Structure formats: structure tokens, C-alpha cells
């Protein structure tokens, strides 16, 4: 057993672990898949597990009573934006992943990018347009150039994301997001290779390069396509690997993340890393990237889940 394994091991049967999943966001289906996978993994190690499908308003003292650690398998709004984290904090519950403030920062792509800029972390140039602000769209097209990414300010799984190489495409992409009453983030598109780096504790897991048939990592490519490729043998020079890892860990720390995050990065043709966003509760499905990276590092899916539980438990200053 390694030192990290020794420090984060749990004796089976000594804890009751609640796995919360579902939620109310557009990522509800993925969350249910993640939660079910986590629950089965922890059960396979002999732990007592209570999987629960939850929605806003259902986080009560009775729900978390008798649970030693809450494993959050919620994605998107309420699950990742600090909402449920604040509710659990108020109840004094011990839970996995980042706290309310880091979760809020990471979920709000604009505030995250502002923090990255303040910390000297490279991120694509951007503009924000409130619903109906067509003048802001025109200004973004003129200032950022005619090759853009349009995305919601606070959503995950590439929901609502569109590429825009014309003013018409920009207006169409923005209109779809504005229908939900949300502002739109317009980003300069980085034409390069896409990578993701998971940070477990303070250590980066193996880098994954993502190659998709459509040229960008869409929701379909994430969850439905059999052609999306996840590559560990990417052939990057050691110096570029170091820069990607250092950038990911720096971004993780800059937002105050803890336990685990997944940092999505574009590598420009000039080999400059550009941070796109941070996921504070990455997916735990069969398609998900963090379990792939952990397995590459020799950490099985059940042991990854167990380590996250142990990290949360240790943070609560109670004996394991």
C-alpha cells in the first residue's frame, strides 16, 4: 500500500456513505448515471451506501442524519454552483469535493475567467452579452474576430455550446441561450488540441488528449459518440506536459478547489495552454474522463471513490 493509499483508506463497514444524485439541471440524466456507478463501486468495497435521488428543497437534517460522508454525484446547477454545498454546510454535513465559494466560482465561467486573469492563468479572450444585447454581440465579433465559441455562462456538459464563424451563427447561438433568460459568453476560439487534466488532492492525474470527429467536444461527443478518442500516448514533449500540469494545478488552486477537479485546456498552435473551465464535480460514468485518468495511474474506480470519501472524512477532523 502506498502512502497516499494508507492515508486515505477506510475500513469497510465503519462508515455510512450517502450518494446524492439527480438534481434539477440539464445534466440530471448524467448525474443519475454517475451516482449509480459510485454507489455500486463503494458497495463493492463493503461499505454501507445510501443512494438518493434529490432535488432542491429536499436536503434536510433527516436526510443526512446518520450519514458519515455525503458523496456528491450532482452535476450542473444547484449541484455544482455552491447551492447544495451551502445547504450541507448549514447542516454541518461532511461532503466530497469543493466548498460553496469554489463551486460558485467554477460554475460561473465569467467569474472563473476573471479569477484566472487575476492569477496570470491564460484563458481565451471573451465578452459577455446579456439577453437581447445585440450590440454587444456585434462588438464581440469585431473585437474577438470571426471564429468564436458561444456558450452559457453557467452550464456544463457542453449544453448550449455552439461554434460561430459568422455574425449570423453568433446571433443564432446567442438567441438559443437567451431563450432561457441567461447571458451568453462569447469566447475567441482556440484552434489547437484539447486536453483535460484531473487534479486529485494536489496531484495531477495523467493528461488526456480529446479527439473528436466534429473538431470540438460537443455534448454528443461526450455521451453518445463511439468515435471520440481519449489518448494518453499524445507524444507531447516533457516541457509541454509540465506546462499543462502546472497550469491545471494552478487553476485548481486559484479557485480554491479541493479533493478533485477536472481542468479543460486548449493547447494553441504556439503550444500555449489556455484554460477553458474547471469542473468541480466531474462525471463518474463509463464515458467519464476522470475515472479513465485514475485507472491509467493505477487507481481503480472503486478505490478512486473511496479515496474521495476518505479525503472528505479527514477534512472533517473525525477519525477514519
List keywords for this structure.
320 residues; alpha+beta; Rossmann fold; D-amino Acid Aminotransferase, Chain A, domain 1; Dna Ligase, domain 1; 3 domains; six-stranded antiparallel β-sheet; four-stranded antiparallel β-sheet; 12 helices; 13 strands
How many β strands by DSSP?
A: 13
Structural class: alpha+beta
> How many structural domains can be distinguished in the coordinates?
3
CATH class value of the largest domain: Alpha Beta
CATH architecture of the largest domain: 3-Layer(aba) Sandwich
What pattern of helices and strands is seen along the backbone? HEHEHEHHHEHEEHEEEEHEHEEHH
Radius of gyration: 20 Å
How helical, in percent, are the residues? 25-40%
Which fold name is given in CATH as the topology of the largest domain? Rossmann fold
Give the assembly state of these chains: single chain
Q: What is the overall silhouette?
A: globular
Low-pLDDT stretches are none
